[in-house]
UniProtKB/TrEMBL annotation:
Domain of life: Bacteria
Gene3D superfamilies hit by this protein: ACP-like
Coiled-coil regions listed: none
Domain Carrier: 5-80
Name the record gives this protein: Phosphopantetheine-binding protein
One of the Pfam families matching this protein, by short name: PP-binding
The species this protein was found in: Amycolatopsis decaplanina DSM 44594
Length: 84
C-alpha cells in the first residue's frame, strides 16, 4: 500500500465518522451531498478535522469543490505540498 493509499484510507475513516457511515460505505467518488446527504455543517466539520489531523489549512473557499473523498484527498495532497 502506498502512502497515498494509506492517506486515502485515513481520510475515509475520518469522513465516514463525520457522515455517520461505515468506512466501506464511502466510495472514492461518491458525492457527499447527493449520495450521503451531507450538509454544509458536516463539510465544515470534515475540513476542520483534516486541518487538525494533518496540520494544514485548506481554505473554506474550496469547500464547494470538496464533495468526494477523492477531491478531499487531492486537496490534502495539494496543500501539503505547498506547506512542505
Amino acid at each position: 500500500m502506498t502512502q497515498t493509499d494509506t492517506q486515502l484510507e485515513e481520510l475515509r475513516e475520518l469522513v465516514a465518522e463525520v457522515l455517520e457511515l461505515e468506512p466501506e460505505e464511502l466510495e472514492d467518488n461518491g458525492d457527499f451531498i447527493d449520495d450521503y446527504e451531507a450538509d454544509s455543517l458536516r463539510a465544515i466539520e470534515i475540513l476542520a478535522r483534516i486541518d487538525k489531523q494533518y496540520k494544514i489549512e485548506i481554505p473554506q473557499a474550496e469547500l464547494p469543490e470538496l464533495r468526494t473523498l477523492r477531491a478531499v484527498n487531492d486537496a490534502l495532497i495539494r496543500h501539503s505540498v505547498k506547506k512542505g
